[in-house]
Amino acid sequence: MSKAEPHTIFTREMLDLYFASYIGMEGGNPGGAVWFCDSAPPSRDEPLAELLAPQTEPSAWDAAYRHKNRHEMERWQSHQKIARIMAAARAQAFGVALSERDWKEYFDHFLYARHGAEFKLSLYPLPARMINQTSWSKAFRGQPALVPKQRYLDLCREGLRFAFIDGIRELRKPKVVVCFGERHVADFVKAFRLSEVEPVDQILQPADQVKTLRVFERDGTRWIICPALAGAAGLMSDVLLDAMGQYVAGWLEPGDFPSLSIETDRSSYERIATHGRRPSSLTIGRADLRI
Fold it and tell me: What's the pTM?
């Protein structure tokens, strides 16, 4: 894709259309039973370096993606925690014991697969912080629709971004949406149109750790607003993550876990590693999951 010239000024209308897409979302399967939602995507450099072209299809962690990022993935702790939640939910749904290596298998082979069980999105399309710690005003200098930052936030909230998110939610109807970060409750409520829904507080207490979950239900979907994955008050322990997965599984069943088979995933990976290119096709099926 061509790079935008440094002096290019993006209008509010251009940005509104750009944001009303899968930009800034990790992806996976929007038709999956479980969605995970953060406020903003991870930090990165030059988030508007490319010409604005809405991303009309979600990304996914296919074999080519995993091969390309194989050296960095071991450092992606937030995604590893989500894999642990999903592995625990899967074991609970199938009624089998959870082993210590299940999360790693899920992370390596199933997480965010195109035909998998989950989808990862962000309310806002641009990272809250840049990798090099560049300030927002400096990163977007010369973009009046984005500076000050409040203009950007208002554009997403009142423009097409939040409407797009609720639109795909209404179309896909996931069973559960897990929203990370209690300080973003107001944004989660606005994005998913939950203002008329009375929430119920639930206690998650494995061992001696206590976390409060705020649960909403509307139109066949349940939203769980929970602590963030990082930080002293977050879901930091394996015990909490496993308990979170078991809680989510209360609305799931074995049929909610279609995925690439491990054999197919490994075969595709090996072909890419050997030939340096993506295979022409992947065999997708509701394979028996090894748990």
Answer: 0.87
